[in-house]
Design a protein that fits this description.
The complex is a heterodimer of chains A (about 325) and B (about 375).
Chain A (H helix, E strand, L loop, with lengths): L2 H10 L4 H6 L15 H14 L8 H10 L6 H10 L2 H4 L4 E5 L5 E3 L2 E10 L6 E5 L6 E4 L5 E5 L8 E14 L5 H34 L1 E2 L2 E2 L4 H22 L7 H23 L9 H12 L6 H10 L3
Chain B lengths: L6 H14 L2 H10 L12 H8 L18 H13 L5 H17 L2 H12 L5 E4 L15 E5 L2 E11 L7 E7 L10 E7 L5 E6 L7 E11 L4 E2 L5 H12 L3 H17 L5 H26 L5 H26 L17 H12 L6 H12 L5
Parallel strand pairs in B: 1-4
Antiparallel strand pairs in B: 2-3, 3-7, 4-5, 5-8, 6-7
The chains are: A alpha+beta (about 325), B alpha+beta (about 375).
């Protein structure tokens, strides 16, 4: 991705759109809560990003960090991963969801049966890329009657679904089983970059609060206990950012993602502390960063599992 | 430092556990965590049962609805209620903070008026301290009590308090006079909440329980509603707040989350679990040291601050570690069919940030230890 493209996409998420994007997939907890205008906004944002050629970007790691910084939630990162395995002319410009499962799944007569947990935006993608635990990444068309899904009620309050494929026809085999690890490594580095962007946004939110919130006759950012903690987080973000943008990052993708995962949870937890009780309010973005970091930081594997995988991969 | 429990105290713990493990009690607790969104429990039947037995405020005299036992028995009850998942805010606000404040500083008339009802779980109470611009810096509060004959009328807004919608009355801090010293001139009032002149509005937030914005619009209170002396509320606050800072509630919450985490953590997490277990054990020891101090009649504010900081930070760490170790499943709401451990991890994760903010933030505890224990300049 060229610097110009990044600038254009950053410009797309301007001061007016960015607050809407941050909450476009945040569905309040409520019995049978509908999605309000969220789905419509997400479709509009998707069109905007595709129009800016986000799907053809050469530097997707920078793009991922930008997406994290505006707390973008949608199928773009999954779609970028799918496009590493499936030719663009098959997918066109349609969104894809990764449906990864640890459970064994099977293929029979060109159809697959699998149950996948925490699939993002399952209700609004055109394809699923089913992978992990089975014969190889399989691309299936969404909307087939053999596919059932339900949205989770979870703290992230996003669009995460349990999806069951019961004899769903395979549209295309997406590369060989050996190509999946490389695609997964790319996805993990992008996820790490997304978390770095998210952490930076949360820190910016905390810094702004520390500048303006006054207690004991002065801005709380003047207290060293607050200021030094924020400085420390800033330095950790800086270090992790270099890690994920390093050209050799994919060779250490699992470890990189584990580091970014820890970073995002730490920064957002401390952002909550700096913001005080106000940060817990539903209309305050601090709690939004805290909840989204928790979900996004374990979406592609827990840090514990990622580090184990990284270590085992050296043997 | 664990007290040496007497056989009677061990027996009391067993009795409490037996009651809390009854099917009906467990069902009520589980149900209280699956209420429709936007609803939350107030006093439960289990509170009333404990109240009838004289256990809810067991350390208060019998004439006030207690059993005349010690703070150790009260701590045992609190610890077991939290370990068994009984929603604790309504209890801690009504008994541990407001009730204790009345017990220690109230007039005999106030004790008779409020304590038996609180102890029997017939009424409940909350606190109205924080304001939109006043959090840790409580001395700068702006709610004012304007003289009205020999009474006052209260004007102001209180926020980030909980359970006001269920409470019969509140302990409210308001300014009765102004002067060069900000913490002078604050008075504590016992304010009826179900009255004209009090507007309660929900403030939805991250946790399972709503905050309330309470607007005091000229509600009239009299001398009989003043807790302690007029203009001297700061002294009362200074003595009451450390009493609730044993950290026992936080250490019990950490224990509860950790017990579920041990059950559900995948293989290979053992070292992290041992690390957390050790912290939780230390947290419990710090909490019980504070209880022992109170029992011996020599409360120690440095010990209280240490316990509050360590136990709340530990409970928060365990809650966040559950997400780290279990992945997205830890975030599933108790109402989701795939939820694990009845949603204890999700509830813990959403409650966690508040633990190091409420009852004196971590920063206030650190400052206190820096200046009072280490002797650093303030």
């Amino acid at each position: 991705m060229t610097a110009t493209q990044i600038t254009e996409i950053a410009g797309f998420f301007d001061e007016e759109l960015a607050p809407i994007v941050r909450r476009m997939a945040d569905r309040p907890r409520a019995q049978d809560a509908d999605d309000g205008d969220g789905r419509e906004v997400r479709a509009m944002v998707w069109e905007g990003l595709v129009g800016l050629d986000a799907l053809g970007a050469p530097d997707t790691v920078r793009l991922a960090e930008l997406l994290g910084s505006v707390l973008y939630q949608g199928p773009l990162l999954d779609t970028l991963t799918a496009r590493e395995l499936v030719p663009g002319d098959v997918l066109g410009q349609e969104p894809v969801a990764l449906a990864v499962t640890d459970e064994p799944w099977r293929e029979r007569d060109g159809a697959i049966s699998a149950r996948c947990s925490f699939v993002g935006f399952a209700a609004e993608v055109e394809h699923f890329l089913v992978s992990g635990g089975g014969p190889g990444p399989a691309l299936v068309r969404a909307g087939h009657p053999s596919i059932t899904m339900r949205r989770y009620e979870e703290a992230g309050r996003g669009e995460a679904y349990e999806v069951e494929f019961a004899g769903t026809p395979v549209a295309a085999w997406a590369g060989s089983a050996t190509e999946w690890p490389a695609a997964l490594a790319g996805a993990r580095v992008r996820q790490a970059a997304y978390l770095v962007g998210l952490a930076q946004a949360a820190l910016d939110h905390a810094v702004e609060h520390a500048r303006t919130r006054r207690q004991f006759g002065q801005p709380i950012g003047r207290f060293q206990g607050v200021a030094f903690r924020l400085s420390e987080l800033s330095m950790h973000i800086d270090a992790t950012r270099l890690l994920v943008h390093d050209p050799g990052a994919t060779a250490h993708a699992a470890a990189c993602l584990a580091a970014a995962s820890d970073l995002a949870r730490t920064v957002t937890t401390r952002t909550m502390q700096v913001n005080g009780a106000a940060g817990m309010r539903s209309d305050n973005d601090a709690q939004l960063y805290y909840r989204r970091a928790a979900y996004e930081s374990v979406r592609l594997g827990t840090p514990h599992r990622l580090r184990r995988e990284s270590w085992d991969g050296r043997r | 430092m664990m007290p040496a429990f007497t056989p009677e105290q061990d027996g009391f713990r067993e009795e409490v556990c037996k009651l809390l493990c009854e099917d009906a009690v467990r069902a009520e607790i589980a149900q209280s965590r699956r209420l429709p969104y936007g609803e939350e429990s107030g006093l439960l039947e289990v509170h009333r049962r404990l109240g009838k037995l004289g256990w809810l405020a067991i350390n208060w005299p019998e004439r006030y609805g207690g059993s005349g036992a010690t703070i150790v028995e009260k701590a045992i009850l609190t610890e077991e209620m939290i370990r068994h998942g009984v929603p604790d805010n309504v209890h801690s606000l009504g008994i541990d903070i407001v009730g204790n404040a009345i017990h220690l500083f109230g007039t005999e008339e106030q004790k008779q008026r409020f304590l038996p009802g609180l102890a029997r779980a017939e009424i409940t109470a909350n606190v109205l301290f924080s304001e939109p611009d006043v959090g840790s810096d409580l001395a700068s509060l702006a709610t004012r009590a304007e003289p009205d004959g020999d009474h006052w009328r209260l004007h102001g807004r209180k926020i980030y308090n909980m359970k006001a919608q269920h409470s019969d009355f509140a302990l409210c801090a308001a300014r009765t006079s102004t002067g060069p010293v900000s913490f002078a001139g604050i008075t504590l009032f016992l304010v009826p909440l179900r009255s004209m002149g009090v507007l309660i509005e929900p403030v939805w937030n991250l946790s399972e329980e709503r905050f309330d914005l309470v607007t005091l619009d000229g509600i009239r209170v009299g001398p009989e509603d003043v807790l302690g002396e007029v203009d001297d509320g700061w002294q009362v606050l200074g003595k009451v707040l450390p009493l609730e800072r044993t950290g026992l509630d936080h250490s019990a919450k950490a224990e509860r989350t950790l017990a579920a985490l041990r059950e559900h953590a995948p293989p290979g997490c053992e070292e992290r679990l041992v690390e957390l277990e050790t912290r939780v054990r230390a947290a419990r020891l710090l909490a019980w040291r504070c209880v022992a101090n109170l029992h011996e009649g020599r409360p120690d504010e440095v010990h209280s601050a240490t316990a509050k900081w360590y136990t709340s930070e530990t409970a928060k760490e365990v809650a966040v570690a559950a997400v780290e170790l279990l992945g997205p499943r830890a975030l599933l709401d108790a109402r989701d069919p795939a939820a694990i451990a009845e949603g204890v991890f999700d509830a813990g994760f959403r409650e966690a940030p508040g633990l190091t903010l409420a009852q004196g933030s971590s920063e206030i505890m650190l400052f206190f230890v820096a200046t009072s224990k280490l002797g650093l300049p303030s």
